[in-house]
Design a protein that fits this description.
Helix content: 40-55%
CATH class: Alpha Beta
Largest sheet: 4 strands, mixed
CATH superfamily: Glutaredoxin
Number of strands: 6
Oligomer: single chain
Structural class: alpha+beta
């Protein structure tokens, strides 16, 4: 029996293209019938590491960071909403939406790894932010997400005040930056082949087939 294909995903909880990229990857894995043959690990990347605790209006943030006009932002959001719908994911953009700090969320994702719940928690947090209008920097929201996926919320939340846990996440962020990861999602297959961005399903299928030595014809 072949070893499982190891897939490392560097991403942020509040990154829409990370969500689209993962949902496309998930679809590729499903269509290849390889759900039981892959091992996915999530790694931390903060799009906005200097984001203050109170967050910032998404409109204001995108304008400052990328220079996008309001019309361009609306067009991009409509496009992402449409793509999300095709993939079974709801993007619910709204005028008062705020970009938030995600460092605590990454600490909890590291905690979830030991229990095989990383992907489940990642998608729970992503859904909370994009589909349910929730602040994923709020500890009440984080606690509920932990409970929803069956993790020990008290034990996990204690990690947020642990300097060791915080340092661990910072080290992991630096590790991927030092490897040249500057944009997300970055998806690495068996530590050999890296794909950046929310690529089409067929691209993921081809890469998986090549790495796992199986035949795939588009």
């Amino acid at each position: 029996m072949k070893e499982k294909l190891k897939i490392d995903i560097v991403s942020d909880v509040v990154c829409p293209w990370c969500t689209i990229g993962y949902k496309r990857l998930e679809k590729a894995i499903s269509e290849l019938g390889m759900e039981d043959q892959v091992d996915i690990t999530w790694h931390p990347f903060e799009l906005n590491p200097a984001m203050p605790p109170e967050g910032q209006s998404v409109t204001e943030h995108i304008t400052q960071k990328y220079g996008s006009t309001l019309a361009q932002q609306k067009e991009s959001q409509q496009r992402m909403t449409h793509i999300g719908k095709e993939l079974g994911f709801t993007f619910d953009y709204f005028d008062a939406m705020r970009m938030v700090n995600t460092f605590d969320a990454h600490i909890l994702l590291e905690y979830a790894k030991a229990f095989g719940k990383q992907t489940e928690l990642k998608m729970r947090l992503t859904n909370a932010f994009f589909s349910e209008r929730k602040d994923v920097s709020d500890r009440t929201v984080l606690k509920q997400a932990l409970v929803d996926v069956g993790l020990n919320a008290e034990e996990a939340l204690a990690k947020l005040d642990s300097e060791e846990a915080r340092s661990d996440v910072r080290s992991k962020q630096e590790y991927w930056k030092n490897l040249g990861v500057t944009s997300v999602p970055t998806i690495v297959f068996d530590k050999k082949s890296a794909v950046t961005g929310a690529q089409p399903v067929d691209v993921f299928k081809r890469v998986i087939a090549e790495q796992h030595d199986i035949k795939y014809e588009q």
